[in-house]
Request: fold
Amino acid sequence: MKVFEEIERKDHEQVVFISDKKVGLRAVIAIHNTSLGPALGGARMWTYASDDEALRDVLRLSRGMTYKAAVAGLNLGGGKAVIIGDPQKDKTEALFRTFGRFINGLAGRYITAEDVGTTEREMEWGRMETKYVTGTSRALGGSGAPSPVTGYGVYVGMKACAHEVFGSDSLRGKKIAIQGAGKVGSFLGEHLMKEGAKLFITDIYEDKAKQVAKKLRATYVKPNKIIDLAVDIFAPCALGGGLNDETIPKLRCKIVAGGANNQLLDEKKHIAQLVERGILWAPDYAINAGGLINVANELEGYRQERALKQAEGIYHTLRQIFAVAQQEKVTTSQAANRLAEERIATISRIKQIYVGRSEFRGRLGEISPKSR
Ligand code: NAD
Reply:
């Protein structure tokens, strides 16, 4: 791989390769853009097949974080870390403390959090070496599990979708299919149940799905039956890539709005297929930003009420995305990207003006005593 070309392709600011043979640490930290603030993003631990694969993943994920933070209105940039290793076998205190020391060396340009393959425990190990760690437990003053806030954000985002398609925010009586009875699916389901939606739920683990279904007064559906269920809203809350050539033609809904990351297997191709089928898609990184909003709150002293309140903003963000999509005749995915890019450009401009002015003031300060 041509490393510098790869880094320059999507305008990454900084990529840091770190290694410590003694503790078995090999990781890459990518800082995509810090125009809005320090780059915040999780540390993913994965058995990457090659160094190239790890680098590509961290570059892609860190850029995604820039867009997610920007559209959520947070003063954060986009960053991510990948640790090359097996999360089942290779997680040690020494490794994560060393990782924490490297993060500390970046002096706050990158702030880490948990991600696939890492948990609260590893964040706490990292926290022993640096303050630039979020996602530690509530007991230690951290924000704890992000899924309640993510679930709530998806719920309010779904209301914005309902407003767009049905002319009302109300989800009462709406048929909603939830794919994935995990953390986000369950929290989302609770809000929907309280509002009186008619729920259908599935999971690859039948027992788990049936248990959650009982709690939510939902109908259990087999995993292969959820896609072509005739419903108002389909909520992907499982893994990425669920919207693809095979599944999109089967959908029988008006809205797709859920918490899963990277729902479209191929962003351009599959958003086009959804548009053609007249289905409104809530851009995933906009509707599932509750998790990021939750950890961002930790930086200011965590309070869940405040995080939930901020997550309510997801409703307005989605309304804005739909308005831009309609006015500019673009897809909801393009509209979300545009809003993120515009916010970054605007804030960068303001910062430049501000920096320019303070330099000017500095120069005036030097001149004025002599001229007096
Ligand atoms: P989770 O592991 O608790 O839940 C996911 C569930 O989906 C699991 O129960 C799993 O068995 C099930 N599943 C996997 N493949 C499936 C399939 N093909 N059909 C049906 N069920 C399937 O994870 P989570 O934290 O609830 O996250 C769900 C999604 O939301 C992920 O894509 C995650 O990246 C995204 N997300 C989560 C958060 C958060 O705060 N947890 C924040 C932002 C985005």
Notes: Residues 362-372 have pLDDT under 50 and may be disordered. Residues 237 and 259 are 5 Å apart (CA to CA).
